[in-house]
Amino acid sequence: MNDPEEFRRHAHDLVDWIADYWQGIEEERATPQVLPGEVRASLPAAPPTDGEPFERIVADFRELIKPGLANWGHPGWFAYFPSNSSPPSVLGEILAAGLGAQCMSWATSPAATELEQQMMEWLVQLFGLPDGFTGSIQDTASTSTLTAFLTARQRHGDLPRMTAYWSSEAHSSVKKAARLAGIPVEHQRVIGVDHAFAMDPRALAAAIATDRAAGLIPGIVVATVGTTSSTACDPLGEIGAIARDAGAWFHVDAAYGGTAMILPEMRHLFDGLELADSLVVNPHKWLMTAFDCSTYFIRDVELLVRTFGENPEYLRTAHDAEVVNYRDWGIPLGRRFRALKLWFMLRSYGTVALQEMVRSHIAMAQRLAAVIADTPEWEVLAPVPFGLLCFRNVPTSLKGDENAIARHNAALMEHANSTGRVFLSHTRLDGKYVIRMSIGQFRTEWRHVEEAWGLVEAALVAARAENR
Ligand SMILES: *Cc1c(COP(=O)(O)O)cnc(C)c1O
After folding, report:
1. What pLDDT score was predicted for residue 178?
2. pLDDT reported for residue 60
3. pLDDT at 457
4. Of 78, 213, 379, 380, whose CA is between 20 and 30 Å from 138?
5. pLDDT tens digit sequence for 307-346
6. How many CA atoms lie within 13 A of 402 on its CB side?
7. Checking DSSP bridges between strand 294-298 and strand 278-281, what pairing results, if any?
8. Which of 180, 256, 289, 427 to mutate to test the pocket of ligand 1 (most atoms within 8 A of CB)?
9. What is the residue with the minimal CA distance to atom 12 of ligand 1?
10. Separation of 143 CA from ligand 1 center, angstroms?
11. Backbone Cα Rg of the chain
C-alpha cells in the first residue's frame, strides 16, 4: 500500500469504521466473551509469503480481533480507571503515525520538541502547579515513577544505604520502580495508612528516624493523590515536610487523581505539592487523551539530564547547547510525537468543557455513593473525593463472615458484569472485598450509572431468590 491513493481509500474506510463503532458502542457488550487462546487459534500459524488485499485484512480484523476486545469507550465502563480515547486525541494519534516523526532530539523534529515543551507549560498552568515545574511526556506512570527513582538514586549516590518509602495503598508500579532501581527489599518501607487509606505521616516519620539512627539514607518518599484501590489522598504537606527534613526525594503519584487539579475546588487535595521534587499525572486516564500519554513533572532538570544524558558522537547536533533534547530526560532514546494529541485535545475542548466533564464525573460518583450509603445492608467503604466509589453488600445473615461476604459480593459483581451492559472491577480495602466503580468514561451519563446500580441490585434480588 505504498501508493498514497490506495492509502487514502482505506484510511477513509477505516475512519468511517471508527465513527460507526463509536456511534454504536452503547449497544455493544462492555466486555468480550472469549476464552484464553481462542483468538490466537484463529490466526494463521505463519506470516503470509505474498501480500494480501487490505480488504481481507480488515475483514479479518472485524471477524477475529474485534469480538475479542473490551470496549473501554463503553458508557458502562466502570472498571479500573477510565482510558479516554477522545476523538480529537485519536486524530492526533493518526497524524503522529502518519508523520512517523522521531522526537528524540530537538534536531530530529524541532517542532515536536517545542510543542511538547509548550504542552507541558500549558498543563503546568491548567493544573495550577507551583513554580518551578517543567517536564516531558512519558509512555506510562510506571515509567515516570521509575524515572523518579533513578533520579533520586543519582542524587544520593549511595545505593547500598538508600531507603525508600511508600504507603501500603501505593500502586504496584512504585514497588516495581524500587526493585528496578536496585533498592533491596530490606530497604523498602511500606508505611501504614489511616482509616481513610491515606498514608500515616507519623508512621513515616518514625520509619525514617529508625533508618537514620541505623545509618541508612532516606532516598525517596512516594505519596499518592488518588490511590488505585480507593482514590485515597496522602497528606502531601505533612509527608513533604518529613521528606524534605530527611533529605529524601519527594515524588507524587497522581496518575489518575491529578486530572482533578483542573478544578480549582479540588486543588486543596494537592496542597503541599510545592514540596515535591517530581509528579506524575496520566492524561491517558481521565484527561481525554488516547493512550499512551503520561506527563512527568520535575524541578531539577540539571540532575535529570545528569541521570539520563548520554552524548554519543552520532547523536550530536549543532544546536545541542541551545535546545532541549528530550532523549536526555528519560529512559528511551526514540520518542513518539505524543504532544500532538494533547494539543489537539486541549484546543478542541478548551478548559471549560474539560472542567465540566471532570466535575460531572465527581458529582455522579458522590450522588451514587449517597444512594448506596442510604440503602440498608449496603455500605460505602472509603471517601469519594474523585470519580471512584468502593461499596459492598453485607446481608445480616453473613455478618462477621468476611470470606462469605467476599464471595457474595464477587457473585453480585459477576452477575452484573455478565449482562455485558457494564463492567465493574473489585479490590480489597482493609482485607474487605469491595466492588469498585470508577465513573470517568466521557460517554457515561447518570442513566448509565443508574443502570449499573440497578444491575447490582437486581443481582442481589436474584441471589436472594436462589438462596431461598
Ligand atoms: C494507573 C496508575 C498507575 C499506573 O499507570 P500506568 O500509566 O499504566 O503505568 C500508577 N499509579 C496510580 C495511582 C495509578 O492509578
Report:
1. 98
2. 98
3. 96
4. 78
5. 999 888 888 888 888 999 999 999 999 999 999 999 999 9
6. 7
7. antiparallel
8. 256
9. 255
10. 10
11. 24
Residues in contact with ligand 1 by the CB-under-6-Å rule are: 81, 140-142, 171, 173, 224, 226-228, 253, 255-256, 282, 294
Residue 232's pLDDT is 98
Mean pLDDT within 267-285? 98
- Interval between CA 142 and ligand 1 midpoint (Å): 6
Q: What is the pLDDT of residues 147-201, one digit of tens each?
A: 999 999 999 988 999 999 999 999 999 999 999 999 999 999 999 999 999 999 9
In the sheet where 378-380 sits, what is the strand order? 378-380, 388-393, 432-438, 425-429
Pairing of β 162-167 and β 188-191? parallel
* 133 has pLDDT over 80: yes
Cell 503520561 sits on residue: 294
Spatial separation of the C-alpha atoms in residues 243 and 231, rounded to whole Å: 22
Peptide bond into 292 cis (omega under 30): yes
C-alpha grid cell, residue 8: 487514502
Q: Which residue of 143, 229, 253 sits with most ligand 1 atoms within 8 Å of its CB, as the best mutation to test the pocket?
A: 253
**Amino acid residing at 462:** A
Strand arrangement of the beta sheet that strand 278-281 belongs to = 134-138, 294-298, 278-281, 249-253, 217-224, 162-167, 188-191
pLDDT tens-place string over residues 369-387: 999 999 999 999 999 999 9
Which atom, in ligand 1's list, is nearest to the CA of 143?
9
Ligand 1 centroid – CA 139 distance (Å): 11
